[in-house]
């Protein structure tokens, strides 16, 4: 599955390299058009009032993307939680809990006193946000309006809708759309002929663009002139966190050999960033995005790590693991976002709250 996902991403970003791949892509194009049309029709129904849109009593900010894959939604939501917390606001995150077992109702992952649910129930990303922000609310609700209503009832003054760009059933006061600057729209086609969840015209709904992994070498992207653009970069922290909660500086691992593993959308970039951080990796393993890490996966990691000194993974993966799973130390590497246009970003955030 992981090899198939990597092949698909390369095909739609870099393009076909042989006649078979050209034929395959041409077969996928009609399905992509159909997928895009279904999304367009759904959006039209909401715009025309044929489908109900829930309006919350407090400001709602949606953080999402138009392309599949890791663009940095979770660290961005984490940044927003901390930003509004510094403003003295009671913040709630509402997520659908992808990868968890909740299918209806509302589940409280964190009510302001630390997380109370496991990743297999609520999903890895809500648990990660709860761990990073134990004094804030994190709720999981497949029907997001129920989660928002529950958050407001618990005293939330502002709600962050995680992965909410396509969730049109809830009105939002700010739509933040993240685009990976290296390959923002892939080949411009919807799934499965491309990476997009909708036609590119859906970007017209955005109120703010966050260009992640930005660098001077990134190709320019044509975006609506009237919509603010904020550039950002991913950064791995120098302080690692063990599965037992102990912190260690990355330089303490100098001269040691490790195994890196992950189940995220772009593991290759994570492995490259670890090496840039100065870690010596003798092996690396990748699993499907949101992998559950059952006994089979844990055994395979143990076998591959034989004779090495440490394991290293992402915080999202670490949320589903325990220190006792491995016979050697396993460290999580926190991911942060540096916003190059931080003043522009924070003005937009404050303006949303001041709309009241």
Structural account:
The chain has helices at residues 2-14, 19-47, 73-86, 119-122, 124-132, 144-153, 267-276, 295-304, 315-318, 342-354; strands at 60-65, 91-95, 107-111, 137-140, 158-162, 174-180, 208-212, 229-236, 239-242, 247-249, 257-262, 280-286, 310-314, 330-333, 335-339. By secondary structure, the protein is α/β, with parallel strands linked by helices. The longest helix is centred in the N-terminal third of the chain and has 29 residues, at 19-47. It contains 10 helices and 15 strands. The chain has a 9-stranded mixed beta sheet with strand order 3-4-2-5-1-6-7-8-15, sandwiched between helices. The protein has a 6-stranded mixed beta sheet with strand order 10-9-14-13-11-12.
The rounded Rg comes to 21 Å
Structural class: alpha/beta
Strand content: 15-25%
Q: What order do the strands of the largest sheet run in, or round the barrel if closed?
A: 3-4-2-5-1-6-7-8-15
Q: What order do the SSEs take from the amino end to the carboxyl end, as H and E?
A: HHEHEEHHEHEEEEEEEHEHEHEEH
Spans where pLDDT lies below 50 across 5 or more residues: none
Write down how many β-strands occur, each being a DSSP E stretch of 2 or more residues. 15
Number of helices: 10
What is the element layout, followed by pairings?
Layout: H1 2-14, H2 19-47, E1 60-65, H3 73-86, E2 91-95, E3 107-111, H4 119-122, H5 124-132, E4 137-140, H6 144-153, E5 158-162, E6 174-180, E7 208-212, E8 229-236, E9 239-242, E10 247-249, E11 257-262, H7 267-276, E12 280-286, H8 295-304, E13 310-314, H9 315-318, E14 330-333, E15 335-339, H10 342-354
Parallel strand pairs: 1-5, 1-6, 2-4, 2-5, 6-7, 7-8, 11-12, 11-13, 13-14
Antiparallel strand pairs: 3-4, 8-15, 9-10, 9-14
Helix pairs in contact: 3-5
